[in-house]
Amino acid sequence: MTPAASRQQSRAAWVFVGPALALIAILFFLPVLAGLLLALTDFDIYAIGSTSNARFVGLRNFQQVLHDPDFLTALRNTLYYVIVGGPLSVLTSLGAALLLNARMVRLRGLFRTIYFAPVVTTLVAVAIVWRYLYHPKYGLLNYVMGWIGIAPIDWLGNPHWAMPAIILLSIWKNFGYNMLIFVAGLQAISQDLYEAAGIDGAGAWKRFVHVTLPGLAPTFLFVSVTTMIGFFQLFAEPYIMTQGGPLKSTTTLVLLMYQEGFRWWRMGIASTLAVVLLLATLVGTLLQLRLQRGRAQ
Amino acid sequence: MKSTDASNRTDRVNAPDAAKRSATMKGSARMKRALPSVLLHAALILGAVLTLTPLGWMVAASFMPTGEANSFPPRFLPSQPTLTHYVDLFTRTHLARNFLNSAFVSILATLLSVTFNGMAGYAFAKLRFGGRDKIFRLLTLALVVPGQVGMLPLFLLLRQMGFVNTYVGVLVPFLASVLGIFLIRQYVLGVPDELLDAARVDGAGEFQLFLRVVVPVIKPILVTLAAFTFLSAWNDFLWPLIILSDGGKYTLPVALANLTGEHVQDTELMMAGSVLTVLPALLVFLMFQRAYVRGIMAGSVKQ
What we know:
Chain A is mainly alpha-helical. Chain A has a single domain (68-296), classed as MetI-like (MetI-like fold, Orthogonal Bundle), CATH 1.10.3720.10. Chain A is built from 13 helices and no strands. The mean pLDDT of chain A is 92. Helices cover 76% and strands 0% of the residues of chain B. Chain B is globular. At the A-B interface, helix 1, helix 4, helix 5, helix 6 and helix 8 of A face helix 1, helix 2, helix 4, helix 5 and helix 6 of B.
């Protein structure tokens, strides 16, 4: 390329990337940096009127938050949801992918579309639907469980059952997404490996443990990290179904952040919660990378 | 294609085995083959029923006469299907207005996102400019940062600019996205340079080249990005909930969440509202299923 052409291309390139980069810089990177700073201030409703009312308070918000029982409850609930719900969701996806990928499946495309459908539905709408399904008296779930003799459960009214109920909804809503990724992962495993294992006399279970699972290791890593990041951000389900209750058993970090920030306008504390969310996400991601990298290679 | 090829090969491995068996006891061998297939399909059908039941009940309840959705034992089908709740949605609530808001915002978000991310993704893949790789690495950082971290300052920023409670405010998170740029870039990397150089030799400027040569070639991935953006804008909740304060401007999910507060006893009406919200999303997905699935795959193989 001549220098003139090179300069011309460079100029054109900036016109192409300029708008997107400017938008991302102003609407994402700048607010994220500001969010980190906001967490170090006592920005509240008075500061909304006039920013000069906000003061730098160092790490005081973090200290305050760590001694706040509501925060500790929200953190515990969020971790419960991530640690129990995340793996259950991933396993459901894997199970569905294995079924769907079996050799003799008829109507594969139809089943795939059905399993995937909840993923594209509107969370708010299906959370409302599930709230009625969970109704202790009229709900479909308790009725169907009654067929096999299980006594009615007050799903959303009992602090022990509310989070499991939300987890069940999340699994239903999300499993189709990771299922597709697992199917792609399964199809990427070389058939030669299965043949070799078959020649060595490995049965179906051994082939699954020694060929399928190792072959899926990179997929597992990707799926579990992205699922965990998404699960940390639980908000709409408790907002719609329980408002964080009963007894705050479904109050999550993001729900608390929303309440602090946009109901009470305590932006400093709300930002602190967002930073905690960021830290939890980063720690979780690094943990997963470390735990699974050995297996992935 | 791939899967049939694979299954043929597996068949071949099992062939001697199967032949031996069928020679000795033909009937039971067929049973042995049929049984797993029956179990497999039973499991698949059970899964499909479980998956569809909540959606099916939503649709059925929306057609039930008032009060029937709250009866014991629960009904799976309306005794006398009625459209009254849909009529109520449009006469007693403002959901029609909210539907139009959602449609307007989602379509505009889609057009803008495809334009900005399409251009940027192409440039990152094929054009040379200073700092390109550094900027690209910086962008990857954005993928691990939860959007909530920037949400509060973004709200304050938009408040300063007068965009709170406006459609512009709702659109903001969809205008340009790092994932969108990645998606386009990865696809464009597969476009041969010769194609572009040939057009340049013919004297096409960079913009003509993009519109006449690149866009037609990368149309599939642009459709993918469009489907993704439309659905995430249509389904989004937290951000519009924060940025909108006036019921007339609410998008459907926010309006629906608000409506549950007032009409929580009115199960059938709420189900009609849920159908109105979910149905367009499902239709868009069914229409663009291939494109949508392509996007999920592109995102996953990269890692």
